[in-house]
């Protein structure tokens, strides 16, 4: 038999609290003032793909 647990806080994006500060360009910046260009997210993902290709290229 499985018991149902009430009022369990799940780890979902909606339940996460924003930090007070963000590390950007060598400085701590208040969360509300921090901005990042959307391409920064894309370039980091693309870099991971190419690193994976390079790692397995000679196999």
Describe it.
The chain has a domain at 19-56. It has a two-stranded antiparallel ribbon. The mean pLDDT is 72. Helices cover 32% and strands 14% of the residues. It is an alpha+beta fold. The radius of gyration is 19 Å and the shape is elongated.
Question: What is the 3D shape?
Answer: elongated
The H/E string reads: EEH
Structural class: alpha+beta
**Number of discrete helical segments:** 1
Give the fraction of residues assigned to helices: 25-40%
Gap between N and C termini = 49 Å
Overall pLDDT score: 72
Offer a concise description of the structure:
With 59 residues, this protein is of the alpha+beta class. It has 1 helix and 2 strands.
SSE blueprint:
Blueprint: E1 21-24, E2 27-30, H1 38-56
Antiparallel strand pairs: 1-2
Annotation keywords:
59 residues; alpha+beta; two-stranded antiparallel sheet; 1 helix; 2 strands; 32% helix
């Amino acid at each position: 038999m499985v018991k149902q647990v009430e009022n369990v806080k799940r780890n979902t994006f909606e339940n996460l609290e924003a930090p007070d500060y963000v590390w950007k360009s060598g400085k701590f910046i208040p969360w509300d003032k921090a901005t990042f260009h959307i391409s920064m997210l894309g370039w980091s993902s693309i870099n991971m793909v190419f690193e994976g290709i390079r790692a397995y290229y000679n196999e």
